[in-house]
# Entry
Amino acid sequence: MSADIRPGGVGLLDYGGAGRGAGGAGAIILLHGLMGRGRTWRRQIPWLRRYGRVFTFDAAFHQGVDHRSAPAADELSTERFVADVAELITWIDRGPAVLIGHSMGGLHAWCTAAAYPELVEAVVVEDMAPDFRGRTTGDWTPWFETWPDRFADEGEALAMFGDVAGRYFYEAFDDGRLHGSLEVWQAIADEWGRRDFWAEWDAVASPTLLLEAEYGVTPEGQMAQMASRGRQADRPESAYLRVAGAGHLLHDDVPDVYRGAVEAFLSSLRRG
# Structure
């Protein structure tokens, strides 16, 4: 594993893996969710390496230090994060890449595919939808205020968030402390309450896999509608799966189901 930091505050980790000559993708880039981090993908990396060279990175404002200065509004736009992903693919020179995104990362994955189709081979979207308009993060604040400044250990995080989310959050933290600013993360999410991303979804031409959690965060029926619109557009090798009993962190909540779906999708790309 090797590490680097690119301009714009993007922390990159290269985990190696199969290249195109070995039957794998040029690159598989894992995009984390709103309060996640690249290292929260560690359980998926070993088996993904058989399908391509795997990279993770910490999106801007998720690296533990960038909360020290308040960002400008345009720095928090989806377009800014998409530009970071495109720069990353260009810099590693392994495109077109497979983008696998959870939640916010799923949004950034399909928006990158829409804006830079030449850089994206395929997209996996885990529990994210295009239209959260009218929703706000205001009801998050009282919950956030109950968090300690520092979690003493993983056990404290597990007690507060449960086994799956507690492990996920604690892995993202820096020695038990938040790796970014709650206010900045809320501002990122607030953009989703003001605009929709249907046009970007409809512009995706690459194969897509949609994974929806029964107990996730997406508005009812939207991910099924995404799949329907993809079929109407005759998008190749596209699939949709709604996973009964799964929570928002589907990849950790039901790892075997997640792995089976993603491996089948990646294998279909290779056969194609």
